[in-house]
Every structure is written in C-alpha cells, then in structure tokens.
C-alpha cells in the first residue's frame, strides 16, 4: 500500500505542482478564496471522477470531496480519514505562510491513499478532503466544527510548511479582544475639565498591561496596539480603541489571563471616568493536542522517505485553528521543511512557497501523511492506541 501511495503521488506530481502554483499566483485573503476553492473543486471533480465533490460546503469558500463507502460497510462502521487543505494568503505578502502547499499536501495525500485503498475492499475506509478556508483571520475550522463538518470524521491529517521537519510542534491557545473607551470631548486647553479623556484610559490600560506582563508566567503572552487614539490634539478624545491578543500554552489558562487583563482595562476606565466596552471574538484558537502514536508513525514513515526530523522549537507561540479540530477528532499537524531558512509571514517565505525546489519536500510530507493514515487503517490495534492517546491528551488538558 505504501508503494502504491508513493507511485501515485509521483505520477501526479505535475498536476499537484500546478495546483499549488496556481493558488500561489492568485493569493486571496481569508474568507475570499474563490479562485483556490474553484481550483481545488476542479481538481477533485476533473482529475478523477470517483470523488463526490461539494463546493461551497457550509462556508462560501469551503469544500468537501469524499470517496468510498459512507456510514456502514457490511454492517460495520467505516473509518473515515480526512485530509485538510488550507489556501488563504496574507495581506500584501501573498502566500507567506505557504498555505498553497498545505492545499497540495492535502490533495496529494488523499489521492495517494485512495490509490492504495482502491483494491482493498477488506478495508472500509472512506476518504474525505475538507477545504478549510480563512485560517489566518476568522478561523474557518472553528466555524466548520460548529457546523458539524467534522462530525463523521474519525482521523484528521494536515501538514504545515515551516523551517524544519517536526512531527509535533506545540502551538498555543490565543484569544483576541477589542476594548473601546467612551469619554467626552471638550476643548483640550480652554475647558479640559469639561471633558472625559478616552486617550488617558487607553494609555493607562496599555501601561497596566505592560506592568502586568512582568508578573505573568514566561510562556504567557500579551501584545496589542492602540487602534484609535483620538482625532486632534486640541480635542479631548471622546473615543479610543485598543486591540490585544492573549496566548497561553493551554486553553485552561486563558481565562485566568483574560481576567487579569480585564482588571487592567476596567481600572483604566475607573481612573479616568470613561465607559469601557470589552468585546471578545466568538472563537479562540486552541493549542494543538498531541497524539503520540500518530506523531511516531509519521516520523517512522517520514524517515523511511529520507526526512531528517528536528526537535520541536521551544517558545514558538504560534497558533492555528487546527488546535480546535484536535480537541474534536484525533489528528496530527506536523511541520515540514521547504528548502528555506526564511520564517513564515515574510516575503522570503512567499518566494520559497512558490519555488520549484519546495516540491520535493511538499510531496514527501504528503506521502508520509498518507502512509501514516494507511498504517492506522490497516491496524485496529494502532487505531485503539490513537484513540487512547486522544482521550488521555484531552483528560490531561482538563486536569493539568
Ligand atoms: Zn500563518
Ligand atoms: Zn499558516
């Protein structure tokens, strides 16, 4: 089966390359990925008619492609394996996070595994490809989770380009918020005592949070900006707005950090006499739950393909909406090298994500993912261990 996966992906390498290349040359922002959506829908509808493809699946730029038995097979439940494709880009710098390559990995792994399963009627394992838009902004996966797009999925796989090959890279929980101060305008020199200064509230809040930072655990992060600081120097500002992000390694700590921060924002309002509005988004991105069995299988398969794995990088406080998925379905989100030392979200990384030399590494990651899925599909014992790891990781997260 693993040989079939490798042969199939190699045979389709030109189509797969042109898929990611087309997405790379048409960078689209989160939620607006119409070209990428259509290109991927075409790929699954036209390259191989065996896929059932649903365009605009639950979100305008999400899609779903499925192959294989649905629900039950000979009275037994099937094992539904999903590969995720991301395809949103960043403002001004295009595919600087390499999500065009995530789309390619998801597509390649899915067609590779399908080729291996086609002749194994003893293995009732349908394959689902989910196109999950808007990772960089609104957390498309959190919306798809809410819409129950993952309800019938048993295992979920994706891989993200980075600086090194790592089978599991911890990510952190992040939540953002907007804070608005409402004061009262007045002439800043003639009648300042008639005004209520919303900029003072913003500055005090910023300083309160800076003071708080020293008392936080080193792995907790907060960072923010003053988005609106008033209109003119001779008017006491009657409105200001701040945006902040809070990150902790585990979801269980985020409410404590939020409570401390809220006290800072409220104190600034009390001190200045302003009204404060604290607005949380609908979703936080959770940290990714580890799955030791899947990570080890990915490593073993990757090493057989020539991947040299590095240790996870400490203190990288990045976040992904895959974290939320990892709390709902067992899965992995390894990082793969693409022949550059540049960091994600830079112009240099955009170049690397569109370069021909990234292809070898991208397709290698796809093969390792599909081979890992094949391992679990073929072994009830591995599946049991994957599910045990999932339950244990969730339990530890709640108890820690
Ligand atoms: Zn990114
Ligand atoms: Zn990314």
From TrEMBL:
Peptidase M20 dimerisation domain mapped to chain residues: 176-270
Pfam families: M20_dimer, Peptidase_M20
InterPro entries registered for this protein in UniProt: Amidohydrolase (IPR017439), Bact_exopeptidase_dim_dom (IPR036264), Peptidase_M20 (IPR002933), Peptidase_M20/M20A_hydrolases (IPR052030), Peptidase_M20_dimer (IPR011650), Xaa-Arg_dipeptidase (IPR017144)
Gene3D superfamilies: 3.30.70.360, Zn peptidases
GO molecular function terms noted in the UniProt entry: dipeptidase activity
Highest taxon of source: Eukaryota
Family recorded in the similarity comment: Belongs to the peptidase M20A family.
Protein name: Peptidase M20 domain-containing protein 2
Organism: Stegastes partitus
Lineage of the organism: Eukaryota, Metazoa, Chordata, Craniata, Vertebrata
